[in-house]
From TrEMBL:
Native species: Zhihengliuella flava
Keyword Transmembrane helix carried by entry: no
Pfam family, one: ABC_tran
Superkingdom of origin: Bacteria
Keywords: ATP-binding, Nucleotide-binding
Protein's name according to its UniProt entry: ABC-2 type transport system ATP-binding protein
GO MF, any single term: ATP binding
PROSITE patterns: ABC_TRANSPORTER_2
Domain ABC transporter residue range list: 6-231
Length: 318
C-alpha cells in the first residue's frame, strides 16, 4: 500500500500583507520523484522551505511524516533540503561539509559522496565562498544524494551546472533511486530534461496550484495539431484550445484532452499532423493562465487536472 510522506491542505503564506501562497493542497507519495514546477516567483522555494521546517506557514494543514515540520527534530532528521544558496560557516570547505554531513544524516553514504566528488570534479579543499555557482550546486547535489534521506528536497539543483554535469546528476539520481528508493521533491525550470525522471508534477502559479498530475496522465492531457491554419480551425472547432502558435499560413495548436478517433480521422483527411505534447509545452500552456498578454494568444484556456478530466469523461460515457 502506498502512503503519503507529505500532505498539504489549504497552505497559505504571507510576508507582511503580501500573500505568496494562496491555499495550496497536494500530497506526495512515498518513494516517488515529484517535480514542483512554475514560473519565477510562483512560490516553489517558499513551499519547500515550509515543508523542510525552515519557514513557518501562515495557515493551513501540513503533515510531513505524520507531523508538522516546523521545529520538529523528529521530522527534520528524516529529510534533506538542498539548494545552491545554502549557507555554510565562513571558513568551511567542501571537505568540511562532507565530514560533518554524517552527523546530520544517519544513512549518509561516504562512498557515494566520494564518487560524486570525482564525477563533478569538486575541489574539496577550496573554501565554499570561493566556489563557482556550478560547484556550489555540485556540493548541494552531493549532500542531497549521499544523505539518502527518506525525503530529499532539491531546489533547482542545477544552477550553474553545465549540460554534462546535469546529465550526470540525473543519471546518478535515477540509478541511486532505483537501488535505494526514497521520496524526492525537485523544483526545476528545465522540465524536458527531467521529464523522464518524474512520476508526478505539481505546477504552481502565483501561489496557487494549477496542475497536479501523474506524468503518465499528463501525456494524455493534450495533443497538438499542425498544418495549414485554416484546416486546423475546421478540425479543432468546438474543442478547448490551450495554445496557438502561428507563422504565415501555418499553425500548431495545443488541444486539451486526448486525441480521439474523430479528430484523428478529420486531421488525416486534411493532411494535418497530430502529435504528442511534451511536459514542458503542456506546463507552458497552463502557465499562461491569468497572464493577459499571453492569454491573448489562447482561446478557451481551461486548466483542468488530468484525473478530474478523466472522471468527467467517464461520467459522460456512463
Ligand atoms: N522573505 C520574503 N519576504 C517577502 N517576499 C518574499 C520573501 N521570500 C519570498 N518572497 C516572495 O514570494 C514569492 C514566491 O517566491 P519563491 O522564492 O517561493 O518563488 P519560486 O517559485 O521559488 O521562484 P524562482 O523560480 O524564481 O526561484 C515571490 O514573489 C517572492 O518575491
Amino acid at each position: 500500500m502506498t502512503r503519503n510522506v507529505v500532505e498539504v491542505a489549504g497552505l497559505t503564506k504571507k510576508y507582511g500583507k503580501t500573500e505568496v501562497l494562496g491555499g495550496i493542497d497536494f500530497a506526495i507519495q512515498e518513494n516517488t520523484i515529484t517535480g514542483l514546477l512554475g514560473r519565477n516567483g510562483a512560490g516553489k522555494t517558499t513551499i519547500m522551505s515550509i515543508l523542510s521546517g525552515q519557514e513557518p506557514k501562515t495557515s493551513g494543514r501540513l503533515n510531513v511524516f505524520g507531523a508538522e515540520p516546523f521545529e520538529s527534530a523528529g521530522v527534520l532528521s528524516r529529510l534533506c533540503f538542498v539548494r545552491e544558496s545554502q549557507k555554510y560557516p565562513e571558513d568551511f570547505k567542501a571537505s568540511h561539509v562532507l565530514k560533518t554531513a554524517p552527523w546530520f544524516f544517519e544513512n549518509w553514504d561516504a562512498e557515494l559522496a566520494a564518487e560524486l566528488v570525482e564525477v563533478f570534479r569538486l575541489p574539496v579543499g577550496t573554501r565554499i565562498k570561493k566556489l563557482s555557482r556550478g560547484q556550489l550546486s555540485a556540493v548541494a547535489i552531493i549532500v542531497g544524494m549521499a544523505s539518502r534521506a527518506e525525503l530529499t528536497i532539491f531546489d533547482e539543483p542545477y544552477l550553474g551546472l553545465d549540460a554534462t554535469a546535469r546529465g550526470l546528476f540525473y543519471d546518478y539520481l535515477l540509478r541511486d533511486f532505483m537501488e535505494h528508493p526514497r521520496t524526492v521533491l525537485m523544483s526545476t525550470h528545465l522540465i524536458d530534461e527531467v521529464a523522464n525522471l518524474l512520476e508526478h508534477v505539481v505546477v504552481i502559479d502565483r501561489g496557487r496550484k494549477v496542475l497536479d498530475t501523474d506524468v503518465e496522465a499528463a501525456r494524455e492531457a493534450a495533443f497538438t495539431v499542425a498544418g495549414p491554419a485554416q484546416a486546423i480551425d475546421d478540425v479543432v472547432r468546438g474543442r478547448s484550445v490551450l495554445r496557438t502558435q502561428a507563422l504565415g499560413g501555418l499553425a500548431s495548436v495545443t488541444v486539451d484532452g486526448a486525441a480521439d478517433e474523430q479528430i484523428r480521422a478529420a486531421a488525416a483527411a486534411r493532411g494535418l499532423e497530430i502529435g504528442p505534447v511534451g511536459l514542458q509545452d503542456l506546463v507552458s500552456a497552463y502557465g499562461l493562465m491569468d497572464d493577459p498578454a499571453a492569454a491573448a494568444l489562447t482561446h478557451n484556456l481551461r486548466p483542468i487536472h488530468a484525473r478530474q478530466r478523466r472522471e468527467q469523461q467517464e461520467e459522460v460515457t456512463r
